[in-house]
Amino acid sequence: MKREDKAGGEGGLEALMQGIGNAARAAQRELSLADSAQRNGALMAMAGALRGRTQAIIAANAGDIEDARRNGRPAAFIDRLMLDGKRIEAMAAGLEAIADLPDPVGRTLAEWTRPNGLRIARVCVPLGVVGMIFESRPNVAADAGGLCLKSGNAAILRCGSESLRSVAAIHAGLTEGLSNARLPEAAISLVPVPDRDAVGLMLAGLGGTIDVIIPRGGKGLVARVQAEARVPVFAHLEGICHVYIDKAADLEMARRIVVNAKMRRTGVCGAAECLLIDRAAPHLVKPLLEALIAAGCEVRGDAALQQADARVRPASEADFGHEFLDAVIAAKLVDGVTGAIGHIARFGSDHTDAIVTEDRATAEWFLARVDSAIVLWNASTQFADGAEFGMGAEIGIATGRFHARGPVGLEQLSTFKYVVHGSGQTRAP
Amino acid sequence: MKREDKAGGEGGLEALMQGIGNAARAAQRELSLADSAQRNGALMAMAGALRGRTQAIIAANAGDIEDARRNGRPAAFIDRLMLDGKRIEAMAAGLEAIADLPDPVGRTLAEWTRPNGLRIARVCVPLGVVGMIFESRPNVAADAGGLCLKSGNAAILRCGSESLRSVAAIHAGLTEGLSNARLPEAAISLVPVPDRDAVGLMLAGLGGTIDVIIPRGGKGLVARVQAEARVPVFAHLEGICHVYIDKAADLEMARRIVVNAKMRRTGVCGAAECLLIDRAAPHLVKPLLEALIAAGCEVRGDAALQQADARVRPASEADFGHEFLDAVIAAKLVDGVTGAIGHIARFGSDHTDAIVTEDRATAEWFLARVDSAIVLWNASTQFADGAEFGMGAEIGIATGRFHARGPVGLEQLSTFKYVVHGSGQTRAP
User: Are strands A188-190 and A154-158 parallel, antiparallel or unpaired?
Assistant: First the structure.
């Protein structure tokens, strides 16, 4: 039985979505042939259009904010949703910064000549059509749309229903920019209806028109995407990042790194959620706990840690492998680097883990055996970020093992093909 | 309701398969830390063990062959299944050749230093556990097992029920080699039962223990794997390879390339299945048709082509986009390079397509616009092969856009992680 919905019946929604998929696919073909100057021109025009539409965007956003308030959404939600002149300027500047990045499309990644004279090149090409599913932050539309355009990919944006007015206003600026640069507007398409079933249709790939899905949002969204998607997904479900302080750590450095890894920003996926301290280094325990607590962090640990500092609260088993995204950290004594590696293998999320030590051999042991997307020696886990890696900008962080691992930037939004130049070669029987 | 099956009930099969997955995962951890010499030592020992077991392997194979004959399997099937001293020696030599290849594990793919002094390296690491699902060719066990071992991956081999005795005998040689090199035997595991449900369990990922599935076999197998797998798949469903002969082609070269692309071996995925000739080059049509027909190829084409050579048989619409894997080719006149690109976009399978022309601009236009894993200019499509690309050996060819595209060799069986060396860096607020 067909159900009615806002897009005019199930068939209506399906037809609408398939139309978006087909148009994006066609636009992508055109985009992949547009030269660098044309794509960069569109990015600059998009930035200009966002600036020119600042008032309209703020007005649209006000409607979303009002609804969110009426629906009793928490302050953090409303802060993520809110747009002002400063945030709109940041979006525009972000698009200009993307235009300034080197063009990945057409870059020769490797090239070699075979004994028979065949010249084989691995050439960077766009992935295709990116399905971007996000929640309340409207700026994702501009950031993701810009990165996809730069890398020759078409984007299909699907935002949370509560930010649809804001995103539609931003999207109007993006398509104005595309149109100014004579690129197809469908290169950045927006799902214009709030129907939840649209997500399911995208996860099924819209009849082969979507090549990859990138979710941005809470754990519930990412988990659903990972469970249901029939196309590849670039995502991380959570960032359970560990900092292991080895007995050979420099105390000053350990203190600085632990406090930064946890407290610089507690809501980012690269924030540390668990502190592991070498059992053989009792002299490090008290000062590290003190530093965290002094910085406003709640520390949860076992009896030994509570004995070291009475302000440590008892940890439950559930505190390990938990993403607090808050000023809370689980802490534990472990049996040296081997104990740390075992703990991370059991409780980590393959995201980012760090060791602090002055002992090179211990560090190399850790770096080789912790199988996370990012492993660091004597540096804060908060460096888990495309811009910090020098990629210019990122569309997300992936913890899968395929294609994109770690920050997803322009290079990870690209694939390659083999281009072979011959002079009449045939293959021997 | 539970069904009985050969593995002792559904629970029995599930438990068996999960046990294989868990053991492979544990073995992979050990493997990823084994050094190059140990993995190469195992490959050499495996080669020796296969040679030492030649008689036992031939005896086991005789049982499979006898059953296949009794079941009325066609001659081509029995040829694929058959093992003799020469084929066993080829497997052993193949393992030695893999040992000689450079080690991908631990290779630094890229390295750069950030302004804050962080040194970021992208380091090659194994993918993990590879599920290899294949049909009647028993040699796939040695080839795939060897490539996985070399690249630090564990392999779970699942062969067709009709080759199980042969593969089990080969597998015994592989595990003997692993054991001699003191590597875990589960690094190359064999599904020891013929139950078809084992495939479904592997496609579901065996509780997260399988990282990638590689199918090798007929279109039915690959289609099932692509439709049902819940983990990434490296595969090509079919190779609908095109050769486009441009009006600016050199006739001699065109003739040589077309005949080789079609007729060198008709059963490989890189064999041409469709000949496209520029409508503006009537002088090329007759000699190319004659050359193909003289080489024993059936040509199917429209009225214009039948007029050029009366031996051309009428083509139906279904002949285009069809993988003949035989001495048959579909042929068509197209409106220049644009017509060829359009035809390939509609009927191709993203595998391998070639242009023959002396005109560089036309060639570049074709190479940029045909979005297949491999595009060639003035060379035969039969070069679509890992060894011909200089990769040493391949485990298959992939037409997906992610991670592995084209020949799947050691590099494509690897992923990477970011290893960051710091000196106490913390991230600015």
Answer: parallel
Would you tell me the crossing angle of helices B85-100 and B54-70 to the nearest 10 degrees?
A: 120
CB atoms within 10 A of CB B259: 20
How far is it, in rounded angstroms, from Cα A23 to Cα A187? 8
In this predicted complex, what is the ipTM? 0.93
Identify whether the C-beta of residue A138 lies closer than 8 Å to the C-beta of residue B412.
Answer: no
Chain A interface includes B121 (CB < 8 A): no
Q: Which of B124, B129, B402 to mutate to test the interface with A (most CBs of A within 10 A)?
A: B402
> What is the number of other CB atoms lying within 10 angstroms of the CB of residue B341?
23
- Whether A9 shows a pLDDT value over 80: the answer reads no
Query: Residue B190 contacts by C-beta under 8 Å, 6 or more apart in sequence?
Result: B141, B156, B157, B158, B159, B167, B168, B171
Which residue blocks in A295-349 are alpha helix, DSSP H?
Answer: 303-308, 336-347
Q: What is the pLDDT of residues A164-210, one digit of tens each?
A: 999 999 999 999 999 999 999 999 999 999 999 999 999 999 999 99
Q: Would you state the structure tokens that stand for residue A396, as one six-digit string?
A: 């997300």
Q: Does B118 touch chain A (CB under 8 A)?
A: yes
Q: How far apart are CA A146 and CA A177, in angstroms?
A: 11
- From chain B, the residues in CB contact with A378 under 8 A are 421-425
pLDDT digits (tens, 9 = 90+) for B218-269: 899 999 999 999 999 999 999 999 999 999 999 999 999 999 999 999 999 9
* Closest residue in chain B to residue A420, using alpha carbons only: B376
pLDDT at B5: 44
Q: Summarize chain A as % helix, strand, coil (round to 5).
A: 45, 20, 35
| pLDDT band (50, 70, 90) for residue B3 | very low
CA distance B383 to B380: 6
Own/partner pairs, B17-21, CB within 8 angstroms, 24+ separation: B17/B191, B17/B198, B17/B201, B17/B202, B17/B206, B18/B201, B18/B206, B18/B207, B18/B209, B20/B156, B20/B186, B20/B189, B20/B191, B20/B206, B21/B129, B21/B156, B21/B206, B21/B207, B21/B209, B21/B210
Q: How far apart are CA B395 and CA B386, in angstroms?
A: 8
Rounded to a whole number of angstroms, the distance from the CA of B394 to the nearest CA of chain A is 15
Q: What is the DSSP letter of A327?
A: S
pLDDT digits 0-9 by tens, B48-97: 999 999 999 999 999 999 999 999 999 989 999 999 999 999 999 999 99
Radius of gyration of chain B (CA): 24
| B295: its two tokens | 């080489």
Task: Write the DSSP string, B72-103.
Answer: T--HHHHHHH---HHHHHHHHHHHHHHHHSPP
Dist. CA A30–CA A17, nearest whole Å: 20
Q: Is B56 on the interface with A (CB under 8 A)?
A: no
Angle, vertex CA A374, rays to CA A371 and CA A378, nearest 5: 105
Q: B227 and B215 in contact (C-beta within 8 Å)?
A: no
Interface of B with A in 338-367 (CB under 8 A): 367
Both tokens of A387, joined, read: 């811009």
* Rounded Cα–Cα distance for residues A144 and A147 (Å): 5
How far off is chain A from B422, nearest CA to CA, in Å? Answer: 5
